[in-house]
Amino acid sequence: MSFSQVGGHPNSIQLTEDGSLLIKPALPLEHEFYTLMAQARAMDSMGLAGGEGDGNLERLSRFVPEFYGTLREESIDVETLNADSKDIGEGGIGAMMLQDTSNAMVDAVARNKSSRQHLVLSNLLHSFTKPNVLDLKLGTVLYDELDLECSEAKKARMIKTARETTSGVCGIRITGFQVSTVPFSKQLTPIITTKLYGKSLKKEQLPEGTRRVFPVLGEPPRTDLGLPPDLLLPILRSIHTSLTHLHSIMKEVELRMVGGSLLVVWEGDEQRAREGVEWMKEREIKITERIRQEADVEENEDDDSEYLDSDDDDEGDTSSDEDEENSHRRKPSAPFALSLIDFAHTRFVPGQGPDLGVLLGLDTFAELIEGRIREVEPIEEGRQGSR
Fold first, then answer.
1. Are 118 and 24 in contact (CB under 8 A)?
2. What pLDDT does 293 receive?
3. pTM of the model
4. With contact defined as beta carbons under 8 Å apart, do 154 and 101 qualify?
């Protein structure tokens, strides 16, 4: 997996040796936000019910990178962090956060005297072989009115940027994206498009930008980019479903997210993408079957052990020989990820309602995905007809 930073401040991110964790400078509000999300995630994983507001935070935490604590700048031992990260399981880090949320440190990793801290987060790109990446700036307001260090000149500049780009009228701006080429391409590295492109777009040009972000393999203008339509379509539909879910959550959370982004990652390797799409289909079948079984159990409680345990037994019944043989291969997983990132100016504002600019941005992006789905569907139908 290659790592390219398509948005944000350049050279501000480090990775551990195995690429599973990401290290970035810790700013106070962002540190506070991630700590709160870690607490909500821990409550959720331990099945501890909170109030109505807590439930919304638990749901929101699923759309945020996992937070493993902080490191101090001097002598960050990424090799030790790499080894230590293998021992961090789901819920384990959450329990640590609950024990010490003010100093959520990965103690075994780095001990030093520097005052500057860095956040340790899950790397959303790590599970992808050839990650395609899109960074979207969310919201209509790009300056933090409560930031005392925000000068009038910077405020005026941010207002001007919002007015002259799609941020002001659409609530989103393409910050950057990368799309992987196929093996037969003359260009082996991903095609990276910078923020200058996104800043140049007008509202009516966003559909064209979306086509460049989600190209169909074999379609002009670049026939060596993208995925076949039979893989791109289910990924686009799943992204749209996740967007709808995230929008429903954000409507219930009272916060202001200034300068935050939506990061979308999807698999660019055709074989891995195909495995991921199959994984999604199987997962949907399992969920549907489990719902049916639970409904049957409610009607006949005597059958509960037979039905509810069957899925778990199947998942655990894997031979050790098969595990050893396939240990070098990554297990199939979702072929896309969608997450909110960049919370340096995110504040909770009880009693002030949701961030309407962010909601507008999510709505705009959902509409663009819907439009791209409508464009790709006839391409797939045509290719099916020619087979």
1. yes
2. 81
3. 0.79
4. no
Give the span between the Cα atoms of 224 and 187, in whole angstroms: 9
User: What pLDDT, on the 0 to 100 scale, is given for residue 250?
Assistant: 97
Distance of CA 90 to the CA centre of its chain: 17
Query: Is residue 174 classed as helix, strand or coil in its secondary structure?
Result: strand
Distance CA 69, CA 197 (A): 35
Distances in Å between the Cα of 222 and the Cα atoms of 44, 131, 161, 214, 232 are 44, 18, 30, 12, 16
Q: Where are the alpha helices (DSSP H) in 270-319?
A: 270-299, 304-316
Residue 320 CB contacts under 8 Å (≥ 6 apart), including other chains: none
SS3 2: coil
- Round to whole Å and give the CA distance between 13 and 24: 5
**Spatial CA neighbour of 258 closest among 176, 333, 349:** 349
pLDDT at 82: 47
In this model, does residue 19 exceed pLDDT 70? yes
Query: Which residue, among 279, 295, 262, 212, has the nearest Cα to 63 in the 3D structure?
Result: 262
For 149-169, how does the pLDDT look when each residue is reduced to its tens digit (9 = 90+)?
788 888 898 999 999 999 999
Among candidates 298, 293, 296, which has minimal Cα distance to 308?
293
pLDDT digits (tens, 9 = 90+) for 288-335: 888 888 777 766 655 544 433 334 444 434 444 444 444 445 677 899
Distances (CA, A) of 199 to 195, 308, 311, 325: 6, 52, 49, 49
> In 3-state terms, what secondary structure has residue 219?
coil
Q: Are 341 and 263 in contact (CB under 8 A)?
A: yes
Higher per-residue confidence, 209 vs 83: 209
Any alpha helices (H) in the chain, and if so which ranges? 28-45, 52-61, 78-85, 92-99, 152-164, 166-170, 195-200, 206-213, 229-250, 270-299, 304-316, 320-325, 356-386
Candidates 258, 196, 190; CA nearest to 224 is: 190
Q: Which two tokens stand for residue 289?
A: 């079957």
Place of tokens 């300068």: 259
Contacts of 261 (CB under 8 A, 6+ apart): 7, 8, 135, 136, 137, 138, 175, 340, 341, 342
Distance CA 331, CA 143 (A): 42
